[in-house]
Design goal:
6 helices, 3% strand, mainly alpha, 2 strands, 147 residues, two-stranded antiparallel ribbon
Length: 147
Amino acid sequence: MAENSELAALEESFRKFAIYGDTKASGHEMTGKNWAKICKECKVIDGKLITSTDVDIIFSKVKQKSARVINYEEFKMALEELSAKRYKGKSKEEAFDAICHLIAGKEPASLGVTKAASSGAVERLTDTSKYTGSHKERFDESGKGKG
């Protein structure tokens, strides 16, 4: 089995991914979407031995029949199933340690998030010192609005 510090890091990663994208999540249960995200971002899905379909099937296998989420214990069971599939030549403990090492300490990345662009045109349009006429009277010398 994995050592205590690695299991603590694994549980911390579980909690971070469990609350990702859900403002109401407590961090104790993970959805299928976040399960797929943790597997993809931590490189558990390699495209050859483990695909996203395998990840979805294992999620369905370990969760309760009527549930839509898994808890930390079910998460570890799912990792054991994935480790057996990914590391076929190793013993169960070695395979589980290897897959825990992939996930432990990781956090969800926000890939593809749009950043605000600051171009010269925006700066020019929002510079209150360059305003003229009646618009100039709306701001004081520091650029703050008068109301």
